[in-house]
Amino acid sequence: MPTDADPTAPTRRQLQQELLRRARAGTARRTTTAPGGAATADAGAPAPPSSRPGATARHGRHPLSRAQRRMWLMERLGGAGDSYHVPFATRVRGPFDPAAFATALTALVARHEILRTRYTEQDGAPGQEVLPPPASVPVPVADTDPADTPEALRREAARPFDLTAGEAVRALVLRHGPRDHTVVLTFHHIAVDGGSLETVAAELAILYAAAGDPNGTQPLAAPPQYADHAHREHDALPGLGAELDHWADLLADAAPPALPRPTTAARNTAARPAAVHTVPLAPGLPDALRTLGAGHRATLFAVSLTAAFATLHRLTGDDDLVIGVASTHRTGTAMRALVGLCVNTLPVRVDTSGDPSFAQLLHRVRDALLEAQRHGHLPFDLVLERLGARARGTDGTGLVRVTSDVLGAPTVLRLPGTTAEYVDIGVGDAKFTLSYGLDLADPARPAALVQYDPRALDDAVARATVQDHAHLLTAAAAHPDTPLSELTGPGTRPASTGDDAGHPAARALLAHPQVTDADVHERGEERPVAYAVLRDSVGPRGDELLGLLRRSLPPGDVPAAVTVLDALPRTATGTLDPARLPGALAPTASPGPRAEAVTETFAALLGPVPAPDDDFFALGGHSLVAVQLAERLRTRLALPLTGLDVLQARTPRALTALLDERAAQQSTAKAARKPARSRGPRTGTVLVTGATGGVGAFVLRELVALGRPVLALARPESAHLVAGDGVDVVEGDLTDLAGLRDAVAGADAIVHAACTFTRHEVDLAAMEAMAGAWRQGPFVFVSSVDAYGHPGTHRVAEESPAQEPVSPYGRTKLDCEALLLHAAGTGGRGGASAVRSPIVWGAHDRLREQLRWGAIGGLYQAARTGAPIDLPRPGTGGNDWYGVAWVHAAALARAVTECLDRPVHGVANACGGHVSWHDLAQELAQLLGTRAVIRETDEVPRDLDHRWIYDSARLARPLRARPGEDRRTVLTQMIEGMPHDDR
């Protein structure tokens, strides 16, 4: 699918594997396993005469086209995976000859140089070299039960390509019976697009027939070659200045559509699996839309695109919108048979303001589309290069994040004497946030369709917008002159009928795309309470909606709470029934031990006894008080609670409600927990402390993935969060020294990742108890680079001595290291490793809390609010660089687990990278969607007095970043997982 992040998308009319068609014909997870027992068809026979044109390899290096260049860069960066594999599968019934097919495929590869091209790099510049035609192209044949076919096809589609070896196409035949086969060709996208598949299918049919009867077919004409196209494009680039100016002027102030952000973080942020929803349309609707278009000198594609603009306008509320459509560089008859990557993205910008009718909007879209097509020969990535940072929104999203298309019937391989059936290979990765489609693959069963990225858009939003899209398509055909605001339907949010629908909070809630009804109930002198009904009962929690209101409304209009209901209670006449509203008659917080504990703890730490709706910050609270408050309540109530929870809830009433919810979850989890298994210690068991924390959770995940038996130490209130296959739980914490000793004595290895951060005497006593009870195996302690204090040199070698001043936290880490290293190697103990970590970033709530309120919390909060950020000027104090070291939590976990097998017998640093304060501040502001005002000063604030680069040679191998572990990606994941009002 085309996007500004992927300008190598397919053509509009012949789209099958890409754009929305890839939603049903994409790729699966990467694997290198091929079907077992595969035979190989003999393609050693001479190629038929029809294969000879174009079979002579040209010599030398050729430039890459702009589309190829983008694909090459994605491969080199390691971010492509199998996203750019193009599988093409057909169920072939009837007499099928695998050897003849292998001969035909060999002839096809000989005809088209792009299918035998390798990609190399010379002096930092990529290029392509055409290889000689192969003697044969292997076509493995595997006997496969039809029930096993989908998985076999997914495995085949996901196998990696080696572009440096000239591998761009491979084949596999699954034999289900003597006259029943599935034939799959998998291409790399750098060599083909959707238009290429039409040519490939047509020529393979002719070449297959020629392989069986060389004299019975006419020779194919010599095809155009892709290297010629790449040369033409390369030579034309210097003369495209005027075209670049046109696009730069058109898009200079454009912004990506402001789609609703997901209310919860995606579980797997490394992948971008596409998801699809469809809504059936009336069989006669496409013809009605064609008639509508003809009356306004517009194509069916323009009509469908107009519906996409109208739907997107209703989803976002934006008037100035950009939607991407696919285009092609194939122009003229001579280029039709070109196999290669010839796609381009056209951004269509339309003004939807003024509540136009559908017909009026159609005219705007038609004109904008025609203008884009007139300038469509300019590669879109050149436009992105010219725009630079302007090509992205303030939150980092690409300009073209929404696309639209009309889908026809998929391409199939029609071989002589057989019947062909298209085979779906499942959903691949999402190339966009959202794509609208009119699916006409089966003319008798048209459908409205959306494909979307579940990481960036909630399922409920996608379902609602496809319903709205289907309704708009239907309504437009019947009432094209009706204003868009009056074309209401199933996907349109109904107006609230509540008595207080005019309250600002009610209006703000109704503006949320997942809220279908809302009301605010006044309670005399007390602050009102808001109620919301979610579409399909899926969406944000009440506290998240309350956070949105705090961010968007004046303080006097913010209700005390937002309660999510299945429906608003109404009387027989349809008016709201306040008596049946939850909480309507409860002017104070709910009585009970949790409410009392919250009130008393607020009072103990903040002074006066708070009212139920008093704000934590207004009472003088801050991050440290939040941590202390959470710790006291956690200990008193035996329920999981963090300082981040306190900062999000903010009022005693909301915090009590959260604790009530946690108590219910804990009870449910305990009731569902399997009875404890009666078994002795497992050989190789690793004790992990801090398993529910940010670092410990990643260590736990790494150990389980490696198949290591784990014993996780967790507080009683959090034990249910870590229990699972391969993980046993021992309840306790760092203050339970006897329990710590027992846990250590029963383990074969220890990873100590727990830390109180503020109660240093507890941390030191815990290490003393654990080191004393340690009797066997390795011990890994997750320490901190704070133990180095303030070194006098810019670069800090591993095991450098500490230099004052050393913070209390750093001093505690040093003392704990000394206890551990002194005990190592004595009394049967194994090797010890003190792994000094810098700031840890990863997609975990504890790590998000540290980002927002920890060591660099001041920088984060300034970036979030757009406040001026004062940073030390380079050279201040004689130091040329100020910044911070960081590590991805997954990389740190790999380093820690490696120390179990290969102890460092001392201190090792675990830094993944270093970033200057200036770069970090700018990046945070971009991701948070604010404008950072950075001011350089000659002063160095204490919390920014970091100027050291930490060598990390001992653990360099496990610390090496994997795809998705770069700084911007992990910060994006952390911010996207935060509540909306804290971004």
The first-to-last residue Cα distance is 29 Å
Radius of gyration, Cα only, in angstroms?
A: 32 Å
What oligomeric arrangement do these chains adopt? single chain
The major sheet is characterized as:
7 strands, parallel
- Into which percent range does the helicity of residues fall? 25-40%
Q: What is the overall pLDDT average?
A: 82
Name the beta content range: 15-25%
Physical arrangement of strands within the biggest beta sheet = 21-20-19-22-23-25-29
How would you describe this protein?
The structure is a single chain. The protein is built from 27 helices and 32 strands. The protein is of the alpha/beta class. A 7-stranded parallel sheet has the order 21-20-19-22-23-25-29, with helices on both faces. A hairpin with a 2-residue loop joins strand 4 and strand 5. The radius of gyration is 32 Å and the shape is globular. It starts with 38 loop residues before the first strand and ends in a 7-residue tail after the last helix. 48% of the residues are buried.
List the main descriptive attributes of the protein structure presented here.
983 residues, 34% helix, single chain, alpha/beta, disordered N terminus, globular, six-stranded mixed β-sheet
